[in-house]
Design a protein that fits this description.
globular, alpha+beta, 7-stranded antiparallel sheet, 24% strand
Amino acid sequence: MAFKQGGVRHGRLGKRSLVAFDGNVTGSRSVWPEETKKMALAKTKFSVRDHGFHFINLFDFSFEFEVPFVGTVDLGHVLHGLCGGMCFAALDYLQSGKPVPSWDSVAEIGPDLLRYLRDRQLDSLSLPLGVAKVFEWMMRDDEDVWRLTAEKEFPKLRKRLDQGKQTVLALIRVRGLDNPTMNHQVLAHGYKFDETTKDLEVYLYDPNYPGQEPMLSMNLADPEQGINAAQSSGESLRGFFVVNYRPQTPP
């Protein structure tokens, strides 16, 4: 489900349709090309407060497996906690129509949910290819990460959000052989994109910030020169890629 909000007016100049967005209802003032600012917005039915878990992502998780061309990898040394599992599980609860458990701390979590979150963490990484992709993006030059984020991954994300589909993202924060646990997974549930300036905001459920709605911001006007990617909560960000999701029935 996508929508446009604020003071949105539709006008037509010749054969070209224009959408003006100025944040306020502006009455009957004419719309001219130089005044027109195209703004694309989409918001899904996911609410951080209603559909996100209330506890923070603080888990001690370990699972070793083999990654081609990398060797033995412990998942606890690739991504922090169970961020992907929490994003997948939150979507599972939403799609099943069940409320998320009301526990406020990890210490309160029952064994069934804990097991489920761990299993969904493994699902979110699509072993071994998902972890291999994280390492691949870590080893890429910044220019490659910027280009792929702007030209491949954002269009994919935009299409899904326009269709009302919340989307899990893998955030690549580090480069080369730096600490891979700095990478992260979040759930995107809306975006705002200025078609003129190419400024982008992506609204998130981040398991590290329960009850809050951090966002990603970047500019996609000239990816070869950089995208100025940032997360509002202060963490570094190089780029992101879309993670495939398949629903399951939560406990």
